[in-house]
Every structure is written in structure tokens, then in C-alpha cells.
Design brief:
alpha+beta; three-stranded antiparallel β-sheet; about 325 residues; globular
């Protein structure tokens, strides 16, 4: 739950205070969604924008500013992602206090038009040909994003989390200790401890071989991939950090495994990626490893939020999916 902002009126009041920090805003905030962040749509002098009120204690100010610096670089490099707006003071974020004197970090991003690729657990509506076309371009865009990131000289004050061995599978894993999830029965915890060890061993071998590693989006699920005509756009960089490039490709695939055209979608994703950027056979062969790691991380994330109204009803289903993924991974 977004601590201190459990009532929509309170969130809206904070949004109204926040827009005073940007000269370009000409309209009132319209509530859109409330997940990790509260998001509002506002009109500016140059078009619509997304106002994000960040979840307290999730990312520090410097981490959020680093995310925005990266996005601004990607825009300059021609990658289709939101553009950050600077405040009246020339800063990338504003810090605003609510009536209880709690401080919140808030930013403003250009609104990205387009329809999401799909929604979680809802079959994709596109034809096979359309899906192949989408995933071909998705692969190209991912490769362009990785290329642009490698060509960027990081600012001296840049700081984002690392989704390396520790960040994915360690004691301080970014999305929680999935193998200790409270929703697991003792025998299920034993299974998850086993698959964690198996994943660590495989990840260590991959990392030692020089796997492609750098800045990644880390959350390219269906809802964060927008389709506008033939253009593919990426939104929601909240989980972005340093990580294995194959993790980005795996996340784009992980919720599509039940799709009847999954294999052709996967093939087109890799074809598109390799048409722009080199992908070693060893990296490509690690797909199942990163699909599994993403499944496991989702359980850790959901269990840590088990009291939230939108998560609680889904937790058992998430656990079931994760246990299935664990058994599948042990056969990998």
C-alpha cells in the first residue's frame, strides 16, 4: 500500500500541490492508476504528461533522478520512451509535502500514446502475423535501447540498483526473498531453496563467461509495451537498473508462454534483437534461466505486498504459477 496516501482525495490533493512546480502544466490532474506509484494525467502547453507520485521509501531521490537522466538520454538517442520535464527550478523532480508533513518525490513525464500489448492473464487479441511483427520490432527496440545505454557516459552522480547475482537471488534481492515467502508451505519452501541454489549455480557460470550486462528496463511486461501504429514504445522505468541484458528479453516473454504462438513470438523477438545488436549463443541459451528468475522474483514481490487489496486475492495464483515454474526449471 502507498503509505499515507490510502484515500484518493489525499492523493489528488498532493497532485494539485505538485503541478505548481512545473510552468508548463495548464490542466488539472486526472487520476489514472495507483500501483507502485500514483499516476495522474495532466495537460501541458506541449501536450499531455504523466505526473508520478513515487511510493515512499522505494527509491531514493538520487535513484529517481538517475532513472530520469537515463530516460532523457534514450530520448536523445532516438529510443521511444517518455521525456522528463524539468521543474521551474530546473530540477528533474519536485519534493512535495502532504497535509501530514510527509514528503513525496514527484516527477513529470511526457504522455506516451498507444495501446498496451495486452493485459496480464488475458489472451492476446492480435493475429499470429501481427504478433510476429510486434515482437520483431520489440526485439529491435530492445537492442537499440541497450546500444544507446552502452554508448552513454554515466553522470558522476548516477545510481541505480544492480540486478546481478545478489540483486536477483541474494539475501538482499531487489524483489524480496522468494524462497522464504510466507505463503509457502514447508515442503514448498524446500523446493524454492533448491531451485534458488540451482539458479545461482547457472547464473554464476553465465556471469563468468562474460554475459552481456548493463542498464536494463527490467519490467517490460505487456502493460509497459505500447503499440502506436507500427511503433513500439516503452514506459515505466521504475525497476530499471544494471542487469543482464537477457533479463529484459525474458521479461518480455515470461507472461506469454501460454499463448498459442509463443514460439514464433520468441523467435521474432530474438531475430529483431540480433538484426541490431550481437547476441551470443550462450546468452540466448540462458533464456529459461531468466524466465525462471523472473517468475521467482514475482512471488517475492507479491508476498511482500500480501496485505494490499489488489495483491491478496491473486497471491495463491501467483504462488501456483511460481511452483510450476520451479518444477519446469529443475528440468532445464
Amino acid at each position: 500500500m502507498f503509505a499515507g496516501l490510502v484515500i484518493l482525495e489525499q492523493v489528488l490533493a498532493l497532485a494539485h500541490k505538485a503541478i505548481e512546480h512545473w510552468d508548463c502544466v495548464v490542466g488539472i490532474p486526472r487520476f489514472v492508476m495507483h500501483r507502485e506509484n500514483a499516476v495522474f494525467k495532466v495537460e501541458t502547453s506541449t501536450g499531455f504528461a504523466a505526473l508520478r507520485i513515487h511510493r515512499p521509501d522505494y527509491h531514493s531521490r538520487i535513484e529517481i533522478e538517475s532513472e530520469l537522466q537515463w530516460m532523457a538520454h534514450l530520448v536523445r538517442a532516438g529510443v521511444d520512451v517518455p521525456t522528463p520535464y524539468k521543474t521551474k527550478l530546473g530540477q528533474l523532480v519536485a519534493v512535495v509535502k502532504n497535509d501530514q508533513k510527509n514528503s513525496y518525490i514527484i516527477d513529470l513525464l511526457s504522455w506516451m500514446s498507444g495501446e498496451p500489448l495486452g493485459m496480464s492473464r488475458v489472451p492476446l487479441a492480435h493475429s499470429k502475423d501481427k504478433l510476429e511483427s510486434i515482437f520483431l520490432e520489440l526485439g529491435r527496440n530492445l537492442a537499440r535501447m541497450h546500444d544507446a545505454s552502452d554508448q552513454w557516459t554515466l553522470p558522476s552522480d548516477f545510481h541505480r540498483h544492480a540486478l546481478d547475482r545478489e540483486g536477483l537471488l541474494g539475501e538482499t534481492a531487489a524483489w524480496g526473498k522468494f524462497w522464504e515467502a510466507t505463503c509457502l508451505a514447508p515442503d514448498e519452501k524446500k523446493l524454492m531453496v533448491e531451485v534458488r541454489k540451482f539458479a545461482v549455480a547457472k547464473l554464476d557460470v553465465l556471469a563468468a563467461s562474460g554475459a552481456d550486462y548493463g542498464l536494463i528496463h527490467a519490467d517490460l511486461v505487456r502493460e509497459n509495451i505500447l503499440i502506436s501504429d507500427d511503433r513500439i514504445r516503452f514506459i515505466d522505468f521504475d525497476d530499471a537498473g544494471f542487469g543482464f541484458r537477457m533479463f529484459d528479453l525474458a521479461v518480455a516473454l515470461v507472461k506469454n508462454r501460454e499463448e498459442p504462438h509463443f514460439e514464433s513470438m520468441k523467435a521474432k523477438l530474438f531475430e529483431g534483437y540480433k538484426s541490431v545488436r550481437q547476441l551470443s549463443s550462450q546468452d540466448e541459451n540462458s533464456t529459461e534461466l531468466f524466465l525462471a528468475i523472473r517468475d521467482f522474483a514475482y512471488l517475492g514481490w507479491a508476498d511482500a505486498r500480501r496485505e494490499e487489496p489488489t495483491i491478496a486475492p491473486r497471491l495463491q495464483h501467483i504462488k501456483h504459477e511460481t511452483l510450476q515454474a520451479a518444477h519446469r526449471f529443475l528440468g532445464y
